[in-house]
Design goal:
Elements lengths: L3 H12 L48 H21 L4 H28 L1 H10 L1 H11 L5 H7 L7
Helix pairs in contact: 2-3, 3-4, 4-5
The structure holds flavin-adenine dinucleotide.
Flavin-adenine dinucleotide binds next to α2.
Length: 158
């Protein structure tokens, strides 16, 4: 679509959300996928969650679930810190690394195959029901990406 920015400005103006704003620049940002293992996500006084922590799914780009889940972890850690009297700054990062980022690592490898060999991946999913089912089970929460990463023999892709 051409002139996307023009449509966006018009949309904001019509919504009445642009009063007093001067539009200087407008740019897109990438969805922060995959997180980074061992990154510090919490200190004694701060915890970062959701997109700020890079918690979007490398395959689907979804980040709402991970935003909520990391928020839950953060709340639990804060609650425990009240009970204990201090905040263990590693506790939250470890939980995120263990439950989310380790799985994103596998999703990242799968994403490379899916997107770089999209034609092969498409055919593979068409032909082999088990692969299709496995991805669906990730969506429904029955499997993790780790589960399917170790279940699909890599030879299928080449
Ligand atoms: C086009 C698009 C489509 C998407 N589709 C999906 C989808 O279908 N499913 C899905 O799961 N995910 C989707 N995502 C990703 C999902 O939107 C994000 O991963 C999720 O919203 C992250 O939640 P968050 O709370 O971490 O951050 P955000 O939702 O970005 O919330 C951060 C908030 O902080 C505010 N803020 C920023 N700076 C400051 C400041 N200095 N002071 C005060 N407030 C501040 C922002 O205004 C914003 O409201 C999509 C993303 C995009 C861009």
């Amino acid at each position: 679509m051409k002139d996307l920015k023009k449509y966006f400005y018009t949309y904001l103006i019509n919504k009445g959300n642009a009063d007093g704003y001067i539009f200087k620049t407008l740019m897109g940002h990438q969805i922060p996928i995959g997180g980074t293992r061992n990154e510090i996500l919490s200190t004694q006084r701060a915890i970062i969650v959701g997109d700020a922590a890079g918690l979007a799914d490398p395959i689907t780009g979804e980040g709402i679930y991970y935003g909520l889940r990391s928020g839950q972890f953060a709340a639990e850690v804060i609650q425990r810190s009240f009970n204990r009297g201090y905040l263990d700054s590693h506790e939250y990062s470890k939980q995120i690394n263990d439950e989310i980022i380790d799985d994103f690592k596998c999703a990242g490898y799968l994403a490379k195959v899916l997107y770089n060999l999209s034609f092969n991946s498409y055919n593979l999913c068409r032909k082999i029901d088990k692969i299709n089912e496995s991805f669906l089970k990730v969506v429904t929460g029955e499997y993790t990406y780790k589960d399917i990463f170790y279940r699909i023999p890599i030879k299928y892709f080449f």
